[in-house]
Each structure stands twice: as C-alpha cells, then as structure tokens.
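Input for the complex:
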Amino acid sequence: MNNVLRMNTLRDSRREPNRAQVACSQCSLGELCLPKDLTDEEKSRFEQIVHRSRPIQAGEHIFRSGDEFKSVASVRTGCFKSYAIDHEGQEQVLGFHLPGEIIGLDAIHQGRHMANVVALDTSAICSLPFNAMTNLARSMPDLQNELFRVMSQRISELETIAGDLSADERIALFLVSLSGRFAKRGYSDKEFILAMSRRDIASYLRLATETVSRVLARFQQRGLIKVDRKQVRILDPDKLEEASRKTVQ
Amino acid sequence: MNNVLRMNTLRDSRREPNRAQVACSQCSLGELCLPKDLTDEEKSRFEQIVHRSRPIQAGEHIFRSGDEFKSVASVRTGCFKSYAIDHEGQEQVLGFHLPGEIIGLDAIHQGRHMANVVALDTSAICSLPFNAMTNLARSMPDLQNELFRVMSQRISELETIAGDLSADERIALFLVSLSGRFAKRGYSDKEFILAMSRRDIASYLRLATETVSRVLARFQQRGLIKVDRKQVRILDPDKLEEASRKTVQ
DNA sequence: CCCGAATACTGATCTATATCAACTACACCT
DNA sequence: AGGTGTAGTTGATATAGATCAGTATTCGGG
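Predicted:
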C-alpha cells in the first residue's frame, strides 16, 4: 500500500484554511489540470473528490508496478518520472511529468499500475480517485471529454517517441517539448532546470548517457543552447526546432 | 470528405435482413468490439448509433490525416494499417488493426485525425460516431469503462514498441503479438498470413526491410518459424517468446 | 574541509543495423 | 505466353551510436 495517495483525513479536510488551498478554483495550476471548461458548480463537485497529498520528497514513490489501480495523480508542483523494469532488471524511463499533468492513465486496462512513479524533486500532487471521477464524468460531459483528451494526447506523445529519430533529433525534440511545457505553466521557455539526470534522459530517449552528454555538448558548440550541469538556456530556438526535424538529405 | 464512413441510408437500415446483419448481438466479432458487459437493452441502444460500411477494397483509405474527427472505426473483417508522413515525406507505420480493434482514438485531442488509415485487404468496418458514443457512455458505465480501457491498452502497446529492443526482439515480439491477436479472434495462432508487406513491418518496427528479411530467415534457420512469402507458421512458440525477451548476457 | 561515491564528460573502439548493390521471383498487364 | 514492374532476398560496406575506459566534477556526510 502506498501512503502518499492516502486521502486527507476528515479532520484535515474540515480545517478550512487547509481546505481552501485544496479548492481547484484557487489552485495555482489554473486550467492546466482537468477542470477545464467546468462551471463553478461543477468545479465544486469535482473538488469534493480530489485529495491533496502532503509534500513528497525526491526519491519517494507514488505508484509502484503492481499496485492496485484506484487513483490517478495530478502534479501540483515538482517533477516525477515513471519507469518500468525490463527482463534484464534495467530501468526504462517512460515519461516525465510536470505540474498539471496526469499520471497513471495507462493502468486502467490492467486494473494495476504497470509503471513505477517517483518524485525527482520535492513535489506535491492531487490524488483523483478514478471511480469517483468516471462517475462524475457521466453527468459532466466536459470532464469526460477532458479525460479522453488527456489519454489521446499521451497516445500521440508516445507515437512521437516511438518514431525512428536520430540522437540529435531526439534530444532537440526533448528540449523543445520541455520548453513548451514550461511555457504553458508560466515558467521561462528559454531557461530551465533539468530535474532529471542524464541517465534518465538517456533511458527515456533510448540512448546511452554518453550520447546525451555528447549531443548536448555539440548543441552548445553550435550555439543552439548553453548547458551548465542541470541548467539549460536555449539560445537559438529556431535552430533547435529545426534540429528536431529530420535532416533532409 | 471520405465516403467510406458514410452512414447507411435510412432505406438500408429499414431493410430488415440487412439490418439484422448490423446488429451487434449477431456480429461475428462477439465481444471483441466495444459492447462488452452490456445488457441486451443497452446493446440495442448501442446498435442504433453504429453504422456498418460497404466493403472496403485493399488500398482504400478510411481516414486521412487532417480529416475532421467525427467517428472511430471498429474493424469487422480484413486488416488496416495506420501511418503518418514525416518531414522527409516518408511513410511511418503506426499500427496494424485486426477485426475487433478500434481505430482513430488518437484523434480526440486534436479534433482531427493525425494518421492515415488504409485497408491492406478487402475489409469491412463499423463506424462509431464519437459524440453519440460519449453521450451514450454517460448512461452506460460499462461502455465508458470500455472506452477508457481501449485507450489505455493502446498506451501500453506504444510503451512497448517505444522501448529499446534489438531487431530480433522486435520481430519476435511482433510475431508473438500477432499470434495472440489471431488466437483471440478464433483464428489459428500457429499459422497465419501477413497482410502487410515487409516494408510495412519494417517501418512499424523502425527497421530496414532488409533487416526484416534477414531476421525472418534467421528465425527459420533456427527452427522457430517457417516463412513462405506472406504465410507464416510458428514452429516453436516457446523459443519465439524467449527471443522476444531481452537476451540476458 | 576533506574524502568517497555518484554523476558527468571525453576519447578510443566495437558492433548492430542501415545503406548500397545485385539478383530472384512472383504478380499483373496486354 | 512474354515483358515489366514491384516485393523480397542476399551479400558487401558504411556508420551512428553503444560500449569500454579513464578523467573530472559535484555532492553529501563526518
């Protein structure tokens, strides 16, 4: 059992100052999480099933492979990675999750989580009980649509990374995608911190860590980016974008 | 506009013999398509929104990239491939679709189909208008669950093929997966026809066509399979299964 | 502030698979 | 039937990126 997703106790949820912070309408994520296009009344019904968790330390897991599927999680702050263990016992990174993104939707058809999900930073999540959510979705068309939309988006994302791309294209695409996701969240799209290690990036992009180092160094030489440890600055977004598209020979 | 998914005309749907064939309860697919766990009354409501198309010739498209998203399709008979065109103008195969499988769910979040879908064989589909389906899903919990389950399954499938596998593993996995899907449909899991070309297989698995030829030849030499043109017979399912798992060194 | 352990970078090889180049065998048309 | 085009196979070579090896940097803990 994982205690991270444990509901706030009744006691907690009655403490009004605390409760207020939980309200989706007050949430700093705005419309990034699910409650898109909902009326105030609908939002309030939605809030009643959402549970905000205590802070999560870097390295702490919120799902483990094999866990019974009960809830999905929405990232409030911080960063998570999800990964599976292959037959060789090697970790395989499946995705990174920023604030506003929903984690755990791939667990539905098995009824169990197949991936492990771990915090890379001090983080916070909201726990969304899936049964309650689908019940609610029945009377709230926009919520149902939003759930379908989020899943469909993940399918598209995976279709991209499954494509046959060169190392340069993969890494450029990764940086461009991160940049866009940060922008959407109100952070700088030109300068950001890579919460994940080179090893994690490599695993996610199906490359060797050495290749990640080399390509980042090469991009820096070519003046596309400036990298210092985990700090990345994008100097030439257009050329980076271009590098993410297949080189026409 | 694509005319394949055009609704049966009212005239057609009133012709009882024809109409009877459309009924999901009579469909040879049984529970492979969506109507799982539905009551007879629910099935009948579902049937009212489903439209069976006329036969589709090999090479005929049922969706084109950019088409407005209105319906998903369920394969009745035959085989389809979906593909995208990359920046180089190269076709990139995204998946193959057998009877009972649902096509087009990745179009939801964009509101447009991003993939092209073409018949590889003489085929038939049912067209499922998505709006009507989600409306229906609201009063039919099992239908809603089924939609989520199908999307979740596609996410898992993509997570697999996105993994970093060797050519041998990819091809073994491809054969094992096909075998399982045929079995589920009541066909032989030991002997089947590859409706798709070597080129399509290669594109789907992100390999060169030459590599596909060579690996199939090697599998035959090792006594795992017998290949003759498009006909495949699986001689040693256990060893093939084993070959699909990463070699432990 | 120092030390050991991660983590990251760089250079030297190796290798799986792509690419290039013939060649073969059907499949389809007239 | 014969001819032509497409799909598949097989061999030779090239190469992107993995692996191996060594060094540098950062970080956490006493």
